[in-house]
Amino acid sequence: MTIAKNCVILLGLLLVIVNVSNTVASLSIPDPYLVKWYTQKVDHLDYSNRDVFKQRYIISDKHWKPNGPIFFYAGNEGDIFSFANNTGFMWENAPRFNAMNLFMEHRYYGESLPYGNKSFNELKYKGYLTVEQALADYAEFVTEFKQHTPGARDSPVIVIGGSYGGMLASWMRMKYPHIVIGALAGSAPILQFPGIYNCSQYYEIATKSFENYSPLCSSSIRKSWAAMRRVAKTDEGRSWLTNLFRLCNPLTEDTVNEFISFVSSAWDSMAMTDYPNPASFLQPMPAYPIKVACSYLTTPNADDHSLIKTIYSASSVFYNYTGTVQCNNIAQTGGSLGDLAGWYFQACTEMILPICSNGVTDMFEPNEWNFTAYSKGCYESQGVYSDRMKALILFGGKNIKSASNIIFSNGLRDPWSAGGVLESLAPSLLAIKIPGACHHEDLRFTGPNDPKQLLDARALEIKTLKSWLTTYYTENRIDNPAKNNELFYKMG
């Protein structure tokens, strides 16, 4: 088991960095916005380090009024425009609340690189890529922004995020409750850490999504791993696979594992994003892409070559639905090198999110998870040892009942829901389970095919945000600028 293979699996936390250029171009932000830069500290924990960097953020205040709320998106592992383009909940509800939208890019991702091109060259540069430093970035920025923006000094801030960004949103509310009055954490697997999580659950949920369309579909995938490895044993077989899957580089004995991971990523990525409307979140895909993929996977007992041909057709629903991809690069299925390097480092230091498979209760090739081997691989590739306890110690794991004003939303068909908070822990720690929904689907733009349970979840989120804001304005004796806004009183 190599660290490269495990990091690819972990990168699925938010594969928004897959094909970032296509994602950014495929959607447009609905309201006018500005791109700005904030001069940020590199190190919030050392009084002797004076290094700074430019941190990118997006601001849209078309609907905002003085003292109106600020919706702050806690950027995660990718280009900030990818999140701005795919978080329709904020854009659709800014008019309702007379809110301002702010999206801040996570340090070491997108264009917010503390040491430019050398940010990942050495540990002395990349060592500042931590959750604690990222949260401090957001806390300092929000504080300074409110102080220096006319009319915003008394504006309540609600932090919003999805996936790793959802984890950051919930943790920001826990760590800085005096700065943000509440958090909406979509598909945030804050319980997916060693010691409190069963690593097999992720792939079991993904498998159920395929089985629900057709048992023949999941059976075809389950049998394909052995078929691909048998074919890949010979030079002739590897050449055939190279041509069939249109690989950018010839498949070799040394890259067979990468190829297997490449195919595997198509399945769990589709399980994450089996949305009811066409989407370009990870890659351009049709509505219900698993249904389309499974239409090819109907002959699990076919001979190896015939079965693999169906696997190619099905996986192309994810990798090349538009038919415009010239070749597939299995060595790097993500976006820019910086985004990959950043997440690989975080996955090795503190974002230790175990995922394993057995091929029996799931349809994936068996792959056990062993922390000792994992940490050893991290030291060999990154020069660091993994700390599986850090996040639990810093943020409490399951012991977060003392926190307040956090919504944990999870689509129950999302594999990452296995590590999510699925039961309300207190009246103000609300868990919203959305049957049939996928990865932070509630945060996406409303679509014509959205099912009732998804619309109901969004309505409950809006109702909860209203409650937080009403309490804030009442307790602080501040006029709610949306009190005469008809939209404020509609839905939720």
UniProtKB/TrEMBL annotation:
GO terms for molecular function: dipeptidyl-peptidase activity; serine-type carboxypeptidase activity. It is an enzyme of class 3 (hydrolase). It is found in: Lysosome. The keyword Cell inner membrane does not apply. One of its GO terms (biological process) is negative regulation of systemic arterial blood pressure. Its EC number is 3.4.16.2. GO terms for cellular component: lysosome. Residues 1-25 form the signal peptide. Keywords: Carboxypeptidase, Disulfide bond, Glycoprotein, Hydrolase, Lysosome, Protease, Signal, Zymogen. It catalyses: Cleavage of a -Pro-|-Xaa bond to release a C-terminal amino acid. InterPro entries: AB_hydrolase_fold, Peptidase_S28, Ser_carbopepase_S28_SKS. It holds the Pfam family Peptidase_S28. Belongs to the peptidase S28 family. Homodimer. Cleaves C-terminal amino acids linked to proline in peptides such as angiotensin II, III and des-Arg9-bradykinin. This cleavage occurs at acidic pH, but enzymatic activity is retained with some substrates at neutral pH. This is Lysosomal Pro-X carboxypeptidase. It comes from Blomia tropicalis.
